[in-house]
Write a structure and sequence with these properties.
Elements (H helix, E strand, L loop, with lengths): L19 E4 L3 H8 L4 E8 L4 E7 L5 E7 L6
Parallel strand pairs: 1-4
Antiparallel strand pairs: 2-3, 3-4
């Protein structure tokens, strides 16, 4: 059971702030599968925090980031 707030004009609007980060084994392959099927917020790239990732916005407005650790490449 869930209770819908009565004072909210849109009770299904995301209430989360930030992003949900999901680790994947092969971010390049996953990018190829979703790049033309999702709303892209930031494309696949190597980041300064030693992750290769991309961000999409899902159908509920949540930001989902898919990434892979690339720290071993910097050694």
């Amino acid at each position: 059971m869930f209770v819908v707030p009565q004072d909210s004009p849109d009770p299904f609007k995301p209430a989360l702030t930030g992003s949900i980060y999901l680790f994947v084994d092969d971010v390049n392959a996953f990018w190829e599968q979703v790049k033309n099927k999702a709303s892209i917020k930031s494309p696949l790239a190597d980041r300064s925090y030693l992750m290769k990732d991309f961000c999409i916005v899902d159908n509920n407005g949540y930001e989902l980031v898919f990434g892979q650790d690339i720290s071993e490449r910097s050694k």
